Amino acid sequence: MKKPFLIFMILAFALSITSTLLAQEDNKLRINGYITAAYAISDSKYPYPYGNEIVQDSVHISNKPTYSALSRYGIQFLYDTGEDLEFLVQIKGSGQNEFKPETDWAMLKYKFTDSLTAKMGKLRLPFYLYSDTLEVSYTYPWLRPPYAAYNEIEHDRFNFNSLNGIDVAFNWQIMDDYELLIELISGEATKKVDYWFAKYDNSLNFLGIEKREGVNKFRELNAVNLAFSGESFTFKYTQLTGKGSYIEDVSTDLNPGLKDYPLTWSDLAFRYDDGSLLFVAEQTKFGYAPPNYAPLDIVGAYATIGYRFGRFMPHITYSTWKSKISATPGTIFTDDVLSNESTTALGLRTEINDYASIKLEYHKVTIGETSAFSAAGKFGYASYDGNNPFLKETLKEGDTVNMYMAGVDMVF
Q1: How far is the C-alpha of 129 from the C-alpha of 147, rounded, in Å?
Q2: For labeling, which of 147, 202, 268, 406 is most exposed (least CB within 10 Å)?
Q3: Comparing C-alpha atoms, which of 59, 325, 104 is closest to residue 211?
Q4: Within 13 Å of residue 163, how many CA atoms lie on the same side as its CB?
Q5: How many angstroms from the chain centroid is the CA of residue 257?
Q6: Residue 120's pLDDT is what?
Q7: Which residue stretches of the chain have pLDDT < 50?
Q8: Are 50 and 33 in contact (CB under 8 A)?
Q9: Whole-number Å distance between alpha carbons of 379 and 245
Q10: What's residue 28's pLDDT?
Q11: How many Cβ atoms are within 10 Å of 125's Cβ, its own excluded?
Q12: What domains sit in the chain, N to C, each tagged with a CATH number?
């Protein structure tokens, strides 16, 4: 386990004591946090979620044990002025980013009425059913949400889940038993990303790969989020549109970056939880159409069912996703499946107390249909064909990979 994570756990303990003392004197300031410490390993030398032997580091799951891939932390500060105005800041870090702290939320929230609120600043987008608690593993049965539906935001071109903008929410109580939410969001986002760059000469001979840094810029982001919920269920639908630009640190004539391409996102989800039986199903769709490239569409879905026996909840999840391109006049692209996979996962969640749980999971990933146009393995274990070693050294269609995970979640 890395030193920054240990430092955070000490800091979190100190903050939890401090927040308790502050609460006794001034209930305007609230401090909350979460920690997940997890271990993961697979029976494959190909790391997940990249799926290429050349891409090897501790933040991906392979046959080399990792304590970083699923571990994360966060602290949230909420100050209530008492005048219907709140200020919220959340700082988080994860093994995916060497546990470096970053600000995920920084916003003002104003309550006009019991039914109407507005937020402005750096906001969390309601991409998913679990968007509000995306990194708080304690709030869901898995160590992390199913990759099939949640992988788009981890893609190196589109890995953002917060924006700078405004959020207006209308929330109505219906017959005291049901709640209807209509949420409107607008803004923009910028995200730095690391990516693997395949180098070629002017004759398209493969020269090797190197790790580079790029910048994703998103503007004209507009989303609507609808939710209808009762005591034990929630229906949710989200739709987002916008424009994106992807700029590499070194642009070339062969790969100048992508600018002002339209993108769309939708999420449809249902959750039922009566305290004993848990059922969750969710489907996400993501698409973009960069100029002079084939339009790309990604569809992912999962279903989870679990049942609580006292402190124990065994659960099973089946998930699948597929990325495909569409035929584009004037290019070499035709209708084609880039990559897909399916996963069956078994898990056991054990409650330690009201603030902590232990989780054990087993995942079996099956590689599906792929094509020669597949990019270098960002989506899951996608397999590829091609004439360079970067594309050859990977899993193939029909291969299976077994992954084993264990972790502890805590909130305070």
Answers
A1: 14
A2: 202
A3: 59
A4: 24
A5: 24
A6: 96
A7: 1, 4, 24-25, 51-58, 154, 156, 250-255, 372-392
A8: no
A9: 20
A10: 83
A11: 23
A12: 3-411 (2.40.160.10)
